[in-house]
Amino acid sequence: MTPTEAAESTEPALTPPAEGTQDAPWHRLDRRMLLIRPVLDVVKSLPVLLGALLFGHGESWQWVGLTFTAITVFTGVSHVLTSRYRITASQVEWHTGLLLRKQRAIPRDRIRTVDVTSEPKHRLFSLAAARIGTGRHSNGSRHKDELVLDAVTIAEAQRLRTLLLHRKAEATEAAAPPEQLIAAVDKRWLRYAPFTLSGLAVVGAAVGTVYHFAHELHFDPVEFSLVQTVVGHFADTPVWLSLVLAAAGLLVLVSLLSIGGYVLSFWNFRLTREPAGTLHVRRGLITTRSVSIEEDRLRGAEIREPLPLRLAGGARCVAIAAGLREGKSADKGGSLLLPPAPLARAHEVVAEVLGEDPAATALVRHPRRALYRRLSRAVLGVLLLAAALYGLAWLGALPDWPWQGALVLVPFAALVGWDRYRGLGHAFTGRYLVTRSGSLDRGTAAVRCDGLTGIVLERSYFQRRAGLVTLIAPVAAGKGKYPVLDIGEADALALADRALPGLLTPFLTGDRDRG
């Protein structure tokens, strides 16, 4: 061996910086996204592009439309080419931009969610989008507290999820049991899809879109021969039969769309418990989604029973967890633990997730005065509506049948008020405060008492006259607060003292001394 070779052999081998250290390597988005992103940007700019090509001959603004499309495509391509990210020991860093550079950094100790979504545009090349969020759900700061890596491989997305969320995985991997299946979708659950009424929203959106375009284009849909045939058929049919046929057709259409939406959203649904103490939810047929919920951030669970689903014996289960956006629905926020399924199965999932089922605890009935409040509010609202319609009819602005129809709704309003009272209830199980309320959208929430940030007691003028109080349990998770509606004042104070012992002791002691 020569002296040079000996010297070289004594030099330490250079190793690349490790992931998760301060000198962690940079990663780039997958270049296969370049085959998709320009097409998507052109589709987004299609109205402007078609307007420029079809109606801009010889006009100067034609070039404005073409330039706008070119800039959109260039921005998308440069985003894919210049975006890079890395995970250091303390934060996730992201840089992008060619002409306008952007830099973002999110501290790792603030990361609460890594939502992995694979839409059809991603699945063409086995890619996914990883949304790294801090869990803040105020609308104004949502995008500032969320980092989106919209073109990474599925394996890379899963690696990011494990690295950022499973901080205890390496320590527990050797002794941890394998992944445990808690719930999986059952084909028989499709019978609950029509009772979600999700298809009704699709029909409403489609009708609104068609009407908008017809109005903008000054086009009358009745000019279609098919529409004229249908309208003529109903004109020759008795009114009651036309209404029945229209309702039946709408019901069939809504049911089919609801079933289709259920299949697209919840097919391949699996809820599992991973070795690192994390609940993992996977679902979706065409667009797949993967959400992780750390059990350390669980503050409880809620069983939701919208009226149609409740009549069919079904329910949905939602996690009350810190760091998950509630959004317009649990489905969008990522907190869904079970899609529409049998009510008994929802209780089983709650028991598996929490270790017990506080939602099944027998609830305490609320005072009879709460029933009077619900009946009076429900019936009075319909009577005020009928009075307003009657006034318009008396002035000649409306016919008589609207206010007469409103009076017909009075018994139904009373029935809803009675059902809302039947839905009221609360309980205390030692670890959980349980509250239930609602009729059209009934929810039974079980919130851990050690997760409460306080207790709020409030009452309106009419509640004071009735001797009732609303107890609010604030928690930094889920909806943010869970009310116990219209309970007696003494019961509210006792419940608050049991949920957070000592918090109201000075007030209760003062009341006893004055007594």
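^ that was protein a. below is b, sequence first then the tokens
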Amino acid sequence: MAYLRFKALEMLSFKDYRKDNAVEVPAKLSELFCQNVFSEETMRSYLTQEAFTSIQNAIKRGTKIQRDVADQIAVAMKDWALSKGATHYTHWFQPLTGSTAEKHDSFFTPFESDRAIERFSGGMLIQQEPDASSFPNGGIRNTFEARGYTAWDPSSPSFIIGTTLCIPSIFISYTGETLDYKAPLLKALHAVDEAATDICKSYFDKNITKVSPTLGWEQEYFLVDSALYQSRPDLVITGKTLLGHSPAKGQQLDDHYFGSIPTRVMNFMKELEIECMKLGIPVTTRHNEVAPNQFELAPMYEEVNVAVDHNSLLMDIMARVAHKHHFHILFHEKPFAGVNGSGKHNNWSLATDTGENLLSPGKNPKKNLQFLTFFVNTIKAVHDYADLLRASIASASNDHRLGANEAPPAIISVFIGTQLFNVLEELEKVTSGKLSPEEKTDLKLNVVGKIPEILLDNTDRNRTSPFAFTGNKFEIRAVGSSANCAEVMTVMNAIAAKQLQTFKKEVDALIAEKGLKKDEAIFNVLREYIKVSKNILFEGDGYSDEWAEEAAERGLSNLKTTPEALKRELDDKFVSLYEDLNIYTHREIDARNEVKLEKYSTVISIEATVLGDIARNHIIPCALNYQNRLIENVKGLKEIFSDTEFKKLAKEQMNMIAEISEHVSVIKLGVDQLISATAKAKTATSSQLMAETFCNDVKPLFDNIRDASDALEMVVDDELWPMTKYRELLFTR
């Protein structure tokens, strides 16, 4: 291992990555945009008017595409793909593995003994059949029940990577259960569209016929040299370092954040942006993040389904481009101890087909009341379903990051800024029932009417809040960098849809039963929502111990670990939410919960095995090797010095020998305990119990092994140490 470490470091000094991997960027990136996408413009060129209208209706209204029209679209899509050099096609989908999946089939079709054509039909476009039992399914499919289907999602554009036409698709079992992230997301988007549109048409603007949730994600990541990465078995297998002493310099000087981007990294970013443009991913922002070798990129906001697909696609493209630049990209939420981990902030809002953002105030009281309606309902949704939102961001890797003074805590709270908080306090005072003319005037002029001015000078952003309003959107800051955005977006849109449905019923009831006018009814319902949701609003430091105590007093949950969070996911309230909105069946909810619990236990088990192997096979032999050198040194000193001189001169070496033995003993005992605890955890009788056992009994054993190993790293000769060190991984450009 030490050989690999120094060989990797030696390779770095002989390569000019800045020159060898230089990238020429076109004068206008916009000229590349959607070059490899079957975009609306491309459709106009290749489709008949009938086919174009049909696919646009499917995208915008969810109408079904007839089979004969699908044949027309398939032929056009094939012709376009062939013109781009494509030879194969695949249904590109997002199973519950957390990564994307694809099975390539050739357009090539022989039709005589010596002749062939390229063929692609509507049936091939609409459906493929991958193995459903080999993907995570939570027990829905047995090994002998292998059949599953991928089905084309026309609302997300097809694209070409290399020589393959990729068709975004959902993935379902033979019996119809969803086995991916996209299918439930589409159902949640449909639910919130219907609920939000109903409110808009009834109370605010009859011209609105569709509401589309939007998403702007911010992707954080680390880059490490490929050779150095390969020299760390823990990085290769688990995506994180299980051992490693913190370097003298980490992020204390704040000199990396927004600093000058290293040339080699800039070359990577340039090529990545070119590939993104070709695939229609509208990336616009790039910069250094807080930790050394940590970076971020972000796109323009898009409709949620397309944005989710683009993020999943981006992560794949990033890994491919990084490889070309001799980098390995790390999406793990906490790959290095002692420096900030990585997140993926999800900025969520609601856009109408008339060009409005429903979470942005307007130029008159009516538009501002519309803003307040969706603003307060969002807060109420998060208040009522906070634990479900917490479960949607739960994972073994994100547990390392949440609440670590670098990311929001596990306590779900909402930050809206002092000024908007004051507005809600004013609305809380609204008279029950009918409003007096004076109160109506005061509300319109001094409360609702002044919201735009308030937001122009809004309170500073609160980076410690997991759910923060940032002017015209809500930022879900606690999502992990490796997560599929669809998980949290399904929950966010589902809870928003349910809350908006409830709001509509309550307002209509006040109008019908109490005789209130529309605005009066809205104010009355919003007043009650503010009262019951107020305990989730928090403007202070989410990292503080005082907040944890205060949150407990407010009755807010603090689900610190994934097993805790996932256990709450099966509450009847949350199950009913999904069933009422037709997003999941009870069986699908149980299955997905099972998948997440199994993944948690598996991840901890793999980490335990890797840590034990490295400790026994690399750290202990290295320490004993150096200890033997010290022993030989002590023997030599004893031979040439008197007893009095020897005791004085060999004192430190003797102390080091003893110190090494102590650390080796701790590691050996720790590994034995780890092996035993891991084996015991695997005997648990349920997935929930197994996850809890891995969390409470196995994971804590990592610390003693790591502490002893990291202490040895500071004692053992650097030339003998087998593991590439943090200072090399984080500061090698």
